[in-house]
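Q: Got a minute? One more chain.
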Amino acid sequence: MSLLRRIFAPAPKAVVPARSVATSPAPANTLADTVPARVIQLAGELTRLAPDRAEVLLARLCDGMASGSNENALYQTAEALATAVYPKYKFSEYARLFLEDTDFLAYYERFMDPGNWHSLDRKYTLDQLLKLTLHLAGDVAECGAYKGASAFLMCRAHRGSGRLVHLFDSFEGLSDPGEFDGDYWTPRALEMPEQALRESLAGFDNYRVYQGWIPGRFPEVAGHAFAFVHIDVDLYRPTLDSLEFFYERTLPGA
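A: Always. Here it is, folded:
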């Protein structure tokens, strides 16, 4: 428990001059006096679970929580703790630009559930890829619009360009999973009413919605050329149908 003693040691008190008065020395504080019993118990349990790493992990946590820690120290603390708990997860590069992009973060928080940052990097990548195709003359399509988080980025990127964003969705959730889809998805998962999509895109008039199961309504855009196509339908068959239809209709550089 030497590390706990160091972490939870009380800050030294300022020395105040006083008249010399004979007093009995105050009893020294013990660890149990300053650290809650549950904290001591958890430290002991951590030592049992990871005897070769417990002190390092506690030290990392202490360093990260210390007042004045710089961002690099905080990152190293988070990486060390996450690696210890979930070694399969690999931290990406330090100081990624989108973590400082306040406009993009505000967009993300608008559409995602509180605390859900799971698709932050994918949404940022999508936003950047859209910018690489703005010089092309074709339209944009999305297969699997859900409630419009990605469609918002597409409509925003092409606002005023004269190009349309074509949005395909059943609005009844997923179709029946097939033999290549595993057992994670179930029929009707991710069901979302069309109205939710339209509310997300309020203020835009450069999109069209095609309700129905993929690929049923694809023929309605057979005569269009496309600069960007986003496919997010989760299942094998509609993904393949989308690729087979749109690939030959994408422009060079799309």
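A: The two ends are 61 Å apart (CA to CA).
Q: Perfect, thanks.
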